[in-house]
Amino acid sequence: MQEALVLLMLIIFPVKVASSSATPSEPTLSLPGCPDKCGDVTIPYPFGIGDGCAAISFNPSFAVTCNSTFQPPRPMIYAPASADSNTSTPMEVINISLERGEVSIYAPVGYKCFKANTNTLDNYTGEFSLEGTPLILSTTRNRFVVIGCSALGLIGSSNPDFSVAGCFSYCEGLNQTSDGAPCSGKGCCETTISPNFTAFQAVVANVTLLPSFNPCIYAMLVQVGWYSFRRQDLVGHLGFISERATRGVPVLSDWAIRNGSCPKEGAMAPQDYACISTNSYCMNASNGPGYLCSCSKGYKGNPYLREGCQDINECEMRKQDPKYSALYPCKKGVCINTPGGYICRCRIGTRSDGTNSGCQPVLSQSEQVIIVMKLQRRKHRKEKDEYFKQNGGLRLYDEMRSRQVDTILILTETEIQQATENYSDDRVLGCGGHGTVYRGILDDGKEVAIKKSKVIDDGCREEFVNEIIILSQINHRNIVKLLGCCLEVDVPMLVYEFISSGTLFEFLHENDQRLSAPLDLRLKIATQSAEALAYIHSSTSRTILHGDVKSLNILLDNEYNAKVSDFGASALKPMDKNDFIMLIQGTLGYLDPETFVSHHLTDKSDVYSFGVVLLELITRKRAIYIDNHNEKKSLSHTFILMFHQNELRDILDSEIVDNEVMVVLEKLADLIMHCLSPRGDERPTMKEVAEHLQMLRRLQMQLVTKTNPIRAHYSYGGPATTVTSGHGDSQSGVGC
Ligand SMILES: *[C@@H]1O[C@H](CO)[C@@H](O)[C@H](O)[C@H]1NC(C)=O
Ligand SMILES: *[C@@H]1O[C@H](CO)[C@@H](O)[C@H](O)[C@H]1NC(C)=O
Ligand SMILES: *[C@@H]1O[C@H](CO)[C@@H](O)[C@H](O)[C@H]1NC(C)=O
Ligand SMILES: *[C@@H]1O[C@H](CO)[C@@H](O)[C@H](O)[C@H]1NC(C)=O
Ligand SMILES: *[C@@H]1O[C@H](CO)[C@@H](O)[C@H](O)[C@H]1NC(C)=O
Ligand SMILES: *[C@@H]1O[C@H](CO)[C@@H](O)[C@H](O)[C@H]1NC(C)=O
Ligand SMILES: *[C@@H]1O[C@H](CO)[C@@H](O)[C@H](O)[C@H]1NC(C)=O
Ligand SMILES: *[C@@H]1O[C@H](CO)[C@@H](O)[C@H](O)[C@H]1NC(C)=O
Ligand SMILES: *[C@@H]1O[C@H](CO)[C@@H](O)[C@H](O)[C@H]1NC(C)=O
Ligand SMILES: *[C@@H]1O[C@H](CO)[C@@H](O)[C@H](O)[C@H]1NC(C)=O
């Protein structure tokens, strides 16, 4: 029915919509006739420069003062005068966001300074008030930060109730601190504030004598991520303020129309309702009372102005900026902008004169609608069939019949849509070099991970089907099982078993409070992963390479058993230069130097990459890590250097260094050195690596039994805390 409506609309206004392709100028965000900028800062309505330009009936503080004493001029917000103060200090605005309902402003820094050998003292209590304004400090996006040695900082608010938060920072020498270190108590500390703060005082005091190098201590509320510690900030008189905080520090606050809330669905909007643009809607504020307005999907602009939300011309965006073509695809049709959206019109009935006027109204409109719908539907089905064929679907069926494979589930596009709630963003487990991975629930309630590949090359489709057949027949307890696929869409989708406890990468490197990882657990994960790789290299009818061995591709189940994932992904794509560059970026730190030169993957490149994973396991450092001097280092490189300098102990994770098992660690290091040999033919095979690891695992157990028979009885069941669920490159992981 919806489809019919869209088509009908199209037929009635075919020429009109097609010709209105000129881009409208950017809609202005201020009231007509009012300035929309103060200096570099855009001031969108309901904010405005001066009373006549702002929505002061909702709140007088929407009126911004543009102070042109400064060059460029600076926008200021004043809190309304209250009973106990006539004048309020202006607050400088850094940025106003309509969409997010945020204002970023400068807030003061509280400090205390001692001048050497005198009793003189500078001090300032950072006082700040948003009382009476539509702004409320953001709890999630600000932190209270204290800088100094022996500095106790407190932030207090008496509104709505009296509440105080604070933290203590301490250091004995400058050399105990390091630039860029997190504010966890050495040199600086930080804490969150409680909700509903509208005014605060940031005070700081020293608890003991300050060391002579640190004359000043500071306390401030500041936007998350703005402050990063520098040792310099501890040194010198008011150094931090004069160098980095001359105008104060940025603080984020949430604004909203604080009078009223969104009308109930179906109810009339109140008369003074602020969302007056057509194609706008109301959202209740997330912080404090009130509401915000937003333009409907397909529109952009200012929802607080009449006709403020304007149609987005998706077709133009797509033409002008290639990055939108993925967002607004229109594969085989003509893109036509419509109010609030766009449609791809078929080329059926297109006249050959190229004017592209589409289906001419020869038949009556209703007849036409029916015909076009039928054609559309048939075309769509045909397109699906085509994809199915292109993706090797027929061949897969043939193969399955001839080899009597019945382990592959072939899902339709509709089934995949149902399983992933139409590829809902909530279901994204992650995305990596090869595609996006969704968590899906099949009809029978089974949880699966569904991987939507990136475009695959035509030349590889045959290869791909082979891969599916081989992978689906692999049944190894340490390999993530491929359950099925869907070939009805333009890119094939693969369905894998769902693994619950995240990746080895997360387990080793991303725990907030590091989970303990004893040596026996690490050896277990290493051995299991090596067995999986050895199996795949040698046990099947033809060798399959992994091609992307890294800790992100080793998943862990709820008993911390390793499950290697993303096998054969490399076979989906041929290696042209661009792909190769992508691969290097994705696997920096794991890449075999020989492959780097030859662009050719071998089983020995998997061995090299696995060597790096072993290194991560014994050092608990990332393959590319940041060292104490804030420099990026390659783990394999550092390891080789330290190994040759006999400084092995220094690079090992201190948790596992233990004299009684040092011999195991030394043998493991020898094995790793072997795996990292520059020449592939000097590296052991995966099978040899797996056998070696099994041997080391037994040795470790014997040593522990000998010295501590009780501990040996304890079989490792995994740390008590569960790791947050997440998945690697194949089932999730790194930044989308
Ligand atoms: C908003 O609230 C203020 C004070 O609470 C009131 O003076 C003003 O009339 C209200 N404005 C609207 C539009 O309701
Ligand atoms: C502009 O800022 C200057 C310096 O802070 C101040 O003296 C002046 O009163 C301000 N002007 C207005 C119009 O707020
Ligand atoms: C506010 O200003 C008025 C007039 O300028 C004055 O009479 C009153 O005392 C002031 N109130 C306060 C609290 O300063
Ligand atoms: C202002 O906010 C917008 C949108 O939130 C952001 O893109 C922009 O970078 C911000 N500008 C500054 C100077 O912070
Ligand atoms: C802080 O400075 C104020 C004046 O700005 C002064 O009255 C007060 O005594 C100082 N506080 C301390 C603890 O010295
Ligand atoms: C740190 O500095 C203090 C005094 O400046 C010195 O006694 C101490 O040895 C230094 N520690 C290190 C690890 O360099
Ligand atoms: C914050 O204020 C709102 C409304 O004024 C209130 O409902 C809420 O309980 C307050 N939250 C806290 C943590 O005080
Ligand atoms: C704070 O530090 C100053 C300077 O080092 C010192 O004179 C003062 O006694 C200290 N205050 C406390 C409470 O220790
Ligand atoms: C907004 O909040 C009001 C009052 O709490 C409620 O009645 C209304 O349904 C909410 N509207 C939406 C869109 O959530
Ligand atoms: C997915 O989208 C289709 C139409 O595009 C809709 O009919 C269906 O209800 C949606 N399913 C889910 C689970 O959101």
TrEMBL record:
<dbReference type="InterPro" id="IPR045274">
    <property type="entry name" value="WAK-like"/>
</dbReference>
<dbReference type="InterPro" id="IPR000742">
    <property type="entry name" value="EGF"/>
</dbReference>
<dbReference type="InterPro" id="IPR017441">
    <property type="entry name" value="Protein_kinase_ATP_BS"/>
</dbReference>
<dbReference type="GO" id="GO:0004674">
    <property type="term" value="F:protein serine/threonine kinase activity"/>
</dbReference>
<keyword id="KW-1015">Disulfide bond</keyword>
<dbReference type="GO" id="GO:0005886">
    <property type="term" value="C:plasma membrane"/>
</dbReference>
<keyword id="KW-0808">Transferase</keyword>
<dbReference type="InterPro" id="IPR018097">
    <property type="entry name" value="EGF_Ca-bd_CS"/>
</dbReference>
<feature type="binding site">
    <location>
        <position position="452"/>
    </location>
    <ligand>
        <name>ATP</name>
    </ligand>
</feature>
<keyword id="KW-0418">Kinase</keyword>
<dbReference type="GO" id="GO:0007166">
    <property type="term" value="P:cell surface receptor signaling pathway"/>
</dbReference>
<keyword id="KW-0732">Signal</keyword>
<dbReference type="GO" id="GO:0005524">
    <property type="term" value="F:ATP binding"/>
</dbReference>
<protein>
    <recommendedName>
        <fullName>Protein kinase domain-containing protein</fullName>
    </recommendedName>
</protein>
<dbReference type="InterPro" id="IPR000719">
    <property type="entry name" value="Prot_kinase_dom"/>
</dbReference>
<keyword id="KW-0245">EGF-like domain</keyword>
<dbReference type="GO" id="GO:0005509">
    <property type="term" value="F:calcium ion binding"/>
</dbReference>
<keyword id="KW-0723">Serine/threonine-protein kinase</keyword>
<dbReference type="InterPro" id="IPR008271">
    <property type="entry name" value="Ser/Thr_kinase_AS"/>
</dbReference>
<dbReference type="InterPro" id="IPR009030">
    <property type="entry name" value="Growth_fac_rcpt_cys_sf"/>
</dbReference>
<keyword id="KW-0547">Nucleotide-binding</keyword>
<feature type="signal peptide">
    <location>
        <begin position="1"/>
        <end position="19"/>
    </location>
</feature>
<dbReference type="InterPro" id="IPR011009">
    <property type="entry name" value="Kinase-like_dom_sf"/>
</dbReference>
<dbReference type="InterPro" id="IPR001881">
    <property type="entry name" value="EGF-like_Ca-bd_dom"/>
</dbReference>
<dbReference type="Pfam" id="PF00069">
    <property type="entry name" value="Pkinase"/>
</dbReference>
<keyword id="KW-0325">Glycoprotein</keyword>
<dbReference type="InterPro" id="IPR025287">
    <property type="entry name" value="WAK_GUB"/>
</dbReference>
<keyword id="KW-0067">ATP-binding</keyword>
<dbReference type="Pfam" id="PF13947">
    <property type="entry name" value="GUB_WAK_bind"/>
</dbReference>
<dbReference type="GO" id="GO:0030247">
    <property type="term" value="F:polysaccharide binding"/>
</dbReference>
<feature type="domain" description="Protein kinase">
    <location>
        <begin position="423"/>
        <end position="695"/>
    </location>
</feature>
